[in-house]
């Protein structure tokens, strides 16, 4: 591993960042490699998985628990860091882990792009399922949306989603994002036109396979370009830290296009080929774990009175921007 400056790695305990660290052992002494992670409170915490990887590779690890006080300190900084409205609140802990890393190194490697390359998101599985549903007799797919079940009813939530999937299967595949769950999401016309255009292109590149099209959509348009890469770049550069993402090497992207969809996902499993490749590199507990987002318990914190009052006040600003958007948030709030 060639570098003129100290290099470390972000380590979330997921497949992607753990794989990066596991492969780095071929190029550097892991005992001297600085790795960095963030822990959260309760169900959001990935610390046990992180500890599993650190135990396996014995890196020089640095861990920080992101708590509500950290969130409070960063609220006013957030708009200065991102310089625009930015809805991914994992940017808060990303800022903090970048701050931690900069104390020891000037460059870190991250696992960004692994999900987009190898098919790691639940939506990729959903796309595979949609292809399966579209093969069912049309009469069944017409009857399916008439299932008498409503949203938010506990154990029947899966049945509600199946009902919606039957309805979507009657639409053209490129209408997936513009027509899905319309009763609980605000989707402006410009968003609908944009997603239809981009998904149509991705379907062409994915040879008509919808699961593959959704993966390409994420790779080119949805999760990386204006979201995760922006999040990491702004948060890290606020500390003069450079982040490099090996999975986004163009050779990986080209390789991914040649991997059959069924080797990436099936009706239940993501990253099938990747799990097979890394099974001798990572602990079994990591290889077999599911996807978990880098998510602080923000939805719990902002329900406290101090935040609710401010949110109620700020939502009023939307009325001057878009009346329909304002009404939508008032109903949800």
From TrEMBL:
One of its GO terms (molecular function) is asparagine synthase (glutamine-hydrolyzing) activity. GO terms for biological process: asparagine biosynthetic process. CDD domains: Asn_synthase_B_C. Residues 1-314 form the Asparagine synthetase domain. Gene3D superfamilies: HUPs. GO terms for cellular component: cytosol. Pfam families: Asn_synthase. Keywords: Ligase. The keyword Ligase applies. Its EC number is 6.3.5.4. Transmembrane segments: none annotated. This is Asparagine synthase (Glutamine-hydrolysing). It comes from Methanofervidicoccus abyssi. The lineage of its organism: Archaea, Methanobacteriati, Methanobacteriota, Methanomada group, Methanococci.
